[in-house]
Amino acid sequence: MEEKEIRPQENKMGVLPINKLLVSMSVPIMLSMLVQAMYNIVDSVFVSRISENALNAVSLAFPVQNLMIAVATGTGVGINALLSKSLGEKRFDRANLAASNGLFLGICSAVVFAVLGALFSRTFFMVQTGVEEIVEGGAAYIRVCSVCSFGIFIAITVERLLQATGKTIYTMITQMLGAVINLIFDPIFIFVFGMGVAGAAWATVLGQVIGAALGIYFNATKNTEITLTLRGFRPNGEIIRRIYSVGVPSIIMASIGSVMTFGLNRILIDFTTTATAVFGVYFKLQSFVFMPVFGLNNGMVPIVAYNFGARKPDRMIKTVKLAIVYATCIMLLGMAVFQLLSPALLGFFDPSDYMLEIGVPALRTISLSFLFAGFIIVSSSFFQALGHGGLSLTLSLVRQLIVLLPTAWLLSLSGKLGLVWLAFPIAEIFTVILAVILLTYTYRKEIRPLLAEAE
Predict the structure, then answer these.
(1) For the chain, is the Cβ count within 10 Å smaller at the N or the C terminus?
(2) At what angle do helices 132-147 and 52-60 cross, to 10 degrees?
(3) Nearest alpha-carbon partner for 100 in 83, 114, 85, 86
(4) At 279, is the pLDDT very low, low, confident or very high (cuts 50, 70, 90)?
(5) Helices 52-60 and 18-48: angle between axes, nearest 10 degrees
(6) Counting beta carbons within 10 angstroms of the beta carbon of residue 201, is it exposed (0 to 12), middle (13 to 18) or buried (19 or more)?
(7) Sign of the dihedral through C-alpha 282, 333, 304, 13
(8) Phi, psi of 50 (to 5 degrees)
């Protein structure tokens, strides 16, 4: 199928050459996510200068932070899929409803996390460890992040609206500004103001709030394809149901990471608290590899969803194939870095000799899973773009709960910490086989009929 010339009345996602479109949609998001990954790493680098317990506090806080991000991004996936599909079908009123209801859901989510964080932050850490320094620092960190979570929920929501209409350059600007603010104020709050671990949380929140404000401004002034307004707003049950039909499986899928991290921390802490610090450092470092792939996916999803709505299967297939190639290349590069430079990577976190001793083999073993992760992540996002959130959920359940955690627990019974890390590549091997099976099923059910129709 030859690519058509762009007509002014058509959205670029339906007519621009696929490679150019995917690159233009994804690269700004990938760059902004690389910056986010960098400031996450720098955040932990600063905290590690306080003490290993301070680093542990931030590491053990990850499941809660990840849960907030999961709810925000999962809801955003639902918004993005419905909005892009509505634009592809030229149903602009429904696109506007998706945008306004999506912002409403983001605000509601922030209120829920604010209440939970104010009441249960300390309890969350006491369940994991009895070390008072970790409990106090971690509780303070999570309390700030959750009570002020409106920044991250609004920021992610308005960024998804920009992505859904192809305005990814503005998403890059908002995310990069938030990252720069965090980088500047991290050392100021932590060391100059003497706020310790809580200072890192305040710097993060400040960046999120400023990013959210700029995102709202860009949607109001630059996003001409949708009208975002809460004036006279009334929640629309049908629109909310459609958002969550894709969003809830995505939320659960991303939240599984929180359950996995919490469970693995419980397994590792029985060996030593240093093991949990290593695992926390790994998660900060791996984000520098995974974030660009997630950025690629964020660029891919609206393209696939739009062309699904516009009934252009050839463009969908080309998009997914290219995304798999790019994602796999990124992951292979990341694996090479982890294999060759693990001592240097850990060196940024002021490690003890023991942390280096167990951390270097941990990073090298876990990074073997990168061989398969790119393909799995793209496959999962493809299912989401078609509205099959349940298939994405199935992949995540197998990858992070059904296989990974039980395997890690069984390997821990050997009493050898080094074997526990093998659970990661083992889980990826099982999941990539399942992904191929589900992709074949989806192709036969959704894509093949469209191809027959186009002939």
Answers:
(1) C
(2) 50
(3) 83
(4) very high
(5) 140
(6) buried
(7) positive
(8) -75, -55
